Structure formats: structure tokens, C-alpha cells
Amino acid sequence: MKWDLTDTHAAREYCVQYRESHLSFLDRITAEEGIWYYFTYGANGQHTLQFIDNPQIVSQLPDQPKLEYNSMAGGAVKGVYCNSFVLREQLRATSFMQRDYSFKNPPYNQQHAHQRGEDNGSAGDYALYEYPGRYKADGVGKPFTKHRLEAARVEATTGHGATNAIHLMAGHQFALNDHPNDDYNIKYHLLTVSHQGSQPQAVAEEAGSGSTTYSAGFEVMPARLPYRPKLLKKPLVDGPQIAHVTGPEGEEIYCDEHGRVKVWFPWDRHGKKNDTSSCWIRVSSNWAGASWGHIAIPRIGHEVIVDFLEGDPDQPIITGRTYHNNNKSPYTLPDFKTVMTIKSDTHKGVGSNELRFEDQAGMEQVYVHAQKDQDIVVENDRREHIRHDRHQIVENNRHLLVKNNHYQHIAKDEYRRIDNETNWIFGGKLLFKVYNALHTTVYGAVVNSFRANRSTMIKGSDSLKVEGGSTTTILGKTTVKAPNIVLEGTEELTIKGPGGFVKIDSGGVTIVGNKVKINQGGSPGTAADAAPPPAEEPTDPKAAEVATDRGYR
Fold first, then answer.
1. What three-state secondary structure class fits 308?
2. Beta-sheet pairing, 316-322 with 282-283
3. 234-266 burial, b if ≥16 CB within 10 A, otherwise e?
4. Which is the CATH superfamily of the domain at 241-322?
5. Is the pLDDT of residue 9 over 80?
6. Predicted confidence band at 61 (pLDDT cuts at 50, 70, 90)?
7. Does domain 1-92+157-201+211-233 have CATH number 2.40.30.150?
8. Where are the domains of the chain?
9. Of 55, 311, 482, 539, whose CB count within 10 A is highest?
10. pLDDT tens, position by position, 488-544
């Protein structure tokens, strides 16, 4: 085998031999590349299969590269000759255009065109157009288009002849001489050669019934014109197939930057079920927009449905996923046939995230499970409408930050229990309004610190009972004013001032002072009326907006 190639042929990412013999596969891919082959035979009996892609380097016939034309030759004429030859021209395509598509550059149509100068006298442009062109890059599309046109024009000018020469071989060239039409006396490229012979005397029963005869028919094209083999029909995949996602040892998820995966087909006898089992294969998505949509990478071991673009085995695409006996659904069927779920599997760990819907009548539920964190970002408003109870359990800290107002309305009762400390910091006013009684029970100490004035207005009675001692220190003036004032000390009552004191106890009344005046001198102080400012009314919270389905139901 000898490869005598002058063009550059790009390596193929993926090339499948599908439902075709080795020879058919070889013929097809070499024709796509503009490559053909012929055989040469050496004197030592060595046969060589030679591949070429340049019409200019086709070898001449090793024996007698020239063939004489003699239409009058009879049985008495000895030697090798061509006894009939005709050259014909046909209208064939004069230009060829094709396109293809690559997801890596969607706007680009990959269009390529090629035109021949020699058109056999046609009055116009006879164009051929094909899609797809079986290429994904300009470096391949340009020569492919040229080869397509050259192959389509092989039959534009062809010659047919008969000869007694036994050395003609397809793929080689020879020159025709002595034809009465001098235009025929040129070099030709042999397209086909058919040999026919008879030797009846070789069979004993037919000895003497006839002489040995031999003839050969051939088809040629002028060697000045480029030869290319015809593009052969590619085997088509008849419908989608099942495959298993594969990847390197130790990986669970294996994909490239486009989310493509690799697969192994059950019909593949040689695939190793790893990252070399196929090319990168695109995966269909429910949505696929510009940086938005749906993504769910099939994982190693998953069963997928693979279709093929235009039935081309070299262009697989994953269009679906299926469960099988080793990869069963998340819930036992048909027991949980009313369940619809999206359930993931923790990568290289144990656990899952899940969004589940239960549609059993009377048990309808939407269930959300986050294996670790759940983050929700709402760019505008969020509304919730719970028509019955809401239960929330936080087993660790809870943080809430409201950067503007916080409105809360509880239409009935509120029950709150805090088993440890409560710390409140109010940056502004605290307004309380209780329409009924306020009961406060404190089992420990109560410490109030007022850094400014305190005003209290009680429109009813005020009762204070201190079961221990009570101490009040007032650094400013204190007045008490009431219609009746009763001070009673069950054991002792003392009124003390700078000049003396009055003491009343079980022994009597004791008055002690630097000077005691009775009904003479001085005047009493006046108690001012207390005028506490009215308490500010708190503002009612705004009503919550009702969640709505916006009329879609």
C-alpha cells in the first residue's frame, strides 16, 4: 500500500463505519476527501495499492503507454491496437455550491462555491447545490466543494473504445495515436476496463469448435481534465438509538465547555466504555437561550437516546434520557405514579436536592429539599398567601435584615416564648398601644434607665405593692398633689428636713428641730399640677398584598 498524497487532509473528529463493508467504508471516505486508488503490479509479482489525490501524478501504463488506432484491423493483423473509439460530450454541472452548519459558529453559513471554465458549450450556468456538505470548517469545505464539481464533471467528456490490448488497467493513463480525427489523439485517463475472452478448445467436449478470441472495452476521460471519484451514498441510521454515557475512570460527570458528553453504543464491539468511546456529543435541552435556559448534564452510566442529524452516523445528538433496570426512578412505580419530581444526586457524596410534586387527591404537595444551602434572590416584590397554618423550624440562628419599613399585622393572638435573653435596640421611638389590659410578670430584677424625662399618665387608679424595701432618690424638686394624702407607717413614720424631723412611732410623736414654730412665720410650698404630654399613637401597619396567579387559572 502506498499513499501518494499532495493535498492536506484534516483529521476527522468522528468517523463511523456503519452497516458497510471495509471496502465500502474505504471507498466512501476516500471519495469524500477527493482521493482515489489504483493497483500497480511489479515484475517480481508484488502488487501495490496506490492512493493519490492529484490527477497530475497518475502513472502511465507500464507496458505500451501508447495505443495505436486501427479500425480496419482483421485477424491477420498482428500487434496491439484499438479498433473502435468514440468521444462524446454531455452537459454537466458547471458550478457547485454547498453549505453546512456548525453550532460553534451558528451565524456563519459555511457556504463554498467552485466554477469550472470548460463548460462543453453550455449556454448558461448549470449549478448544483447540496446541503449538508459534510464539513465543519472552511479549510475542509473549500477543497470538498472543488472535488464535488470535479466528480460531477467526470462524465462531461468521455470516450469509449474497444481493443485487443490486455494490459489496460483502470486508474492509469495512455495516449491514443493514429486516429483519423486528430482531436482524439491525446492522452486519456482510464476509468473502467472490461475484459472478455473465449478459448473453447480448452474444454475437451468443445475441442475444435472455435478459435481463441479476446477483446477489451474501456471508458476514458481526457487526461487534461481533473478526475475525482463520485461521492458515495453514506449509510443512514434508521431512527434513534440507545447509548450509555461514559467518561474517565473515577469521574461521575464528564463534559466539555459546551455541555457535551461521550457515549458507548451497545453495538460497539471495540469501545472501551471510557472517554474514547465516541466524539463529544451535544445534549438537547428544554430551553437553550443566550446565557439562560435549562441544563442537566447526563452523568456517567446514564442511559440516553441518541438521534442523528439527517441520519448521519457521524453527527449524533442526545435527544432524551431513559431509566433502565439498573438506574430506576427515584420512587417505586406504580406505587408513586402521582409523583412528579426533579431530584439530583450529590456529586461525589451522599444526598440530593429535590423539587417534588404530589398530585394524589387530598395529598397534594409541593416539596423542596436542599441538601445544603438554599438561596433565593427576588429582584422586586415577593408575595406569599398561605390559606391555613404556616410552620417554620430553624435549628440554628435566624437572621433578618429589613432595610426599610417592616409591617406586621396579626389579626388575632400572638404567642411568643424566648428561652434565653432578648436584646432590643431601637434607633428611634418605641410606640406601644394596648387596647386592653397589659400584664407583665418578671421573675428576676427589673432595671430601667431613662436618660431623659419620663412622663406617665394614668387615667384610672394606680396601685403599687412592694414586698421588700423601696428607695427613691430624686435630685430635683418633688411635689405630690392629691385631694387626700394619707401616709402611714405601720411601725414608724419619719419626716426629715434640714432643720429637724418629725417622728411618729408606737411611743408617740417626736418633733425635733433647731427651732419649732407653730402657727407663726413662713408659708407652705405649692405642689404643681402634673401635666404629662399625651403618648403618641403608633401607626397601623400596611396591609399585606395578596399573592395572585395573575389570571392564569
1. strand
2. parallel
3. bbebeebbebbbbbeeeeeebbeeeebbbbbbe
4. Gp5 N-terminal domain (2.40.50.230)
5. yes
6. confident
7. yes
8. 1-92+157-201+211-233, 94-152, 241-322, 331-383
9. 55
10. 989 999 999 999 999 999 999 999 999 888 888 777 778 778 888 887 888 888 887
